Amino acid sequence: MARAVSVSLQKGGVGKTTVAINLADALAARGNDVLLVDLDQQGNATEGVGRKDLYETDGPHVGDVLTEDDPVDVHEIIHDRGVFDLLPAHVDLDDIEDRIRNSTFGILWVRRRIVEPLLGDDYDYIVIDSPPSLGPLSDASLIGAGNLIVPLLMSEPSVSGFERMVEQQVRPIRKEVDLDILAIVPNDLSGNNEEKRIITDLESSPFEQYLPSFARSDGFGESPGPGLRHRIAFSRAWRDGETLREYDPDNDMLDRLDQLARVVENGDTDA
Ligand SMILES: Nc1ncnc2c1ncn2[C@@H]1O[C@H](COP(=O)(O)OP(=O)(O)OP(=O)(O)O)[C@@H](O)[C@H]1O
Ligand SMILES: [Mg+2]
């Protein structure tokens, strides 16, 4: 079943872009047709897959699709990026966000102009990298995808950011349209007691169902431990414009990214 997912959390630097890029790559490595969409004005996903050149393009870009007047066809702004395709961000995304805010149906544009025309026809999976701020672009990303993946640092501010997001964004959206939380992805773990405490707390909370099996506390006794671990290769791959798999094909986190891809394929953490 085709599925779009938004990688989102209203907190900076938790690993949204890292997870979005490498989830798109993992889904593609499993033989799916995949589109990575960069909806963050920072353009980190675009840069991290080696296409920074597209970020300031004079050619048609995401702003020509997310507009009221005579939008261009979404196919015109998609670029081939090896095993997956890329819909890049653009330096003008902040202005585009204002346009979404000021248009009656702007909030539906990601869904109507990007996801609906492509999903199931051109692509099996669409993975959207979302901005770190609460706002129309972030809402449009969640409404457009209908599925959510939340990367989470194992720190109190990160967890309370997630709880706030559920209250202020997920709940209100769910009153109007379907929005499923597919997974919480504990990220950047290095093996301290705080990480253990937070994962254990999550396991005894209503969010327990969203923890994939590779992210559970029973992994603490084993190597390399639960979650996506701190691996310098993630940032080096980004710097070189490569996915983790391209940069370091033997990295031990690739197996976890494959498990996350299976969660997305199955639409459930009990994959
Ligand atoms: N598991 C990890 N191990 C090591 N470094 C990581 C890991 N995950 C993310 N990073 C690094 O942490 C930084 C922040 O990650 P990333 O850009 O993915 O976060 P983000 O949530 O997208 O940030 P923003 O809110 O600014 O969009 C990057 O330099 C990235 O390379
Ligand atoms: Mg990011």
Automatic annotation (TrEMBL):
Residues 3-176 form the AAA domain. Coiled coil: none annotated. CDD domains: ParAB_family. InterPro entries: AAA_dom, DNA_Partitioning_ATPase, P-loop_NTPase. It holds the Pfam family AAA_31. This is Chromosome partitioning protein. It comes from Halogeometricum limi.
